[in-house]
Amino acid sequence: TPRIFSGIQPSGGLTLGNYLGALKRFAALQGAGAETIYCIVDLHAITVWQQPEILRARIREAAAAFMAAGVDPAQSILFNQSQVSAHAEMAWLFNTVARVGWMYRMTQFKDKAGKNSENASLGLLAYPALMAADILTYQATAVPVGEDQKQHLELTRDIAAKFNHDYGVTHFPITEPLIEGVATRVMSLRDGSRKMSKSDPSDASRINLTDDADAIAQKIRKARTDAEPLPDRIEDLKDRPEARNLVNIYAALADETPGSVLARFEGQGFGAFKPALAELAVASLSPITRKMAEYMADPAEIDRILGEGAARADAVAQPILNRTKDVMGLLRSK
Ligand code: AQP
Fold first, then answer.
1. Which of the listed residues 5, 18, 153 should we mutate to test ligand 1's pocket, taking the one with most ligand atoms within 8 A of CB?
2. Which amino acids are annotated catalytic?
3. What residues does each domain of the chain span?
4. Cα–ligand 1 centroid distance for 114 (angstroms)
């Protein structure tokens, strides 16, 4: 059976971008004849500074968001990365396979390290090797992600191929990225050229999964747009990134194509479109926000679920890690 793996960083409150690009699809992929393994990647989050108490809360909040979005811990394995030591061990092995030059080429490293990259954590540079470890420790065959993770997935494939080649084995699969749908890159509500991101300093740029109905409606009302009416074809929004983004968000929330959304709103301006989008967003997200709050009310239960998920993940990961060590000639007691 195909095995699907994906993760989300608890580096902030999750956004509509994380929901449409990741969580909603994670839930949809369950029970479709594949094994699904989903991870809150806390070891990735600490590649930039995290306040310990806040991080702990955000790991639980992310777990609540997964479940509220429909990830069922009985159907999928749901856990946090640092509880399964195979991730960190495999990442070290991959640090010896990956090349330094591969890491410097990553656009996410360049973006997050900024001008003073000498001062970035070594972990931020090695981030993609840990991500390859997350995926390949389960020999996962497919990874659903948003567009921004495409380059890291190509690096995962490069690491798998180099490992297999260097050691003359077919140990690791060449994982397929699943970048599908109209919401693979949800943009900021304030700037149509930037990705909606949980770590954007402007709260108005994103919709948080914890936002209430008023906040959602207000952010959509204030979203940057233009004064033109909507056309009937999405291609005609090529040079209007903010407008295109809102139409794509509508389509993704409604499970429609952008074309069918435009067929309904053609010729209308944002005075009509924004209230309709706000209503749809509130109707879609409110049940998730409510369920998240219910889960968050019982942190001990979240910890129990994550602990159980970690034990199941560990059972899959250990034999693959052991086999990797054997292939590399590392001695272990049997
Ligand atoms: N704007 C987005 N549109 C579509 N998909 C998105 N994803 C993130 N932002 C968008 C997808 O969500 C998954 C988890 O992402 P992540 O938490 O690993 O980190 P990220 O991609 O770096 O996302 P953020 O929100 O921008 O986090 P920060 O601000 O911490 O860097 C991935 O599948 C991602 O593609």
1. 18
2. 112, 195, 198
3. 3-184+299-328, 211-294
4. 18
Residue of the nearest CA to atom 34 in ligand 1?
A: 146
Read off the DSSP letter of residue 141: S
Tell me how far the alpha carbon of residue 185 lies from the centroid of ligand 1, in angstroms.
9
CATH of 3-184+299-328, one of 3.40.50.150, 3.10.310.40, 1.10.8.60, 3.40.50.620: 3.40.50.620
Coil vs helix vs strand at 169: coil
How many C-beta atoms lie closer than 10 Å to residue 85's C-beta? 14
Q: How many CB atoms lie within 10 A of CB 294?
A: 12
How long is the chain? 334
> Which residue, chain included where needed, has tokens 């567009």?
147
Q: Express each pLDDT in 108-127 by its tens digit.
A: 999 999 999 999 999 999 99
Question: What integer is the mean pLDDT of 10-15?
Answer: 95
Q: What is the mean pLDDT of residues 62-86?
A: 98
Complex confidence, ipTM? 0.96
CA-wise closest residue to 292 among 65, 10, 85, 17 = 65
Sort residue 255 into left (φ over 0), alpha (ψ -120 to 50) or beta.
left
Q: Domain 211-294: which topology?
A: Tyrosyl-Transfer RNA Synthetase (1.10.240)
29-67 pLDDT, tens per residue?
A: 998 899 999 999 999 999 999 999 999 999 999 999 999
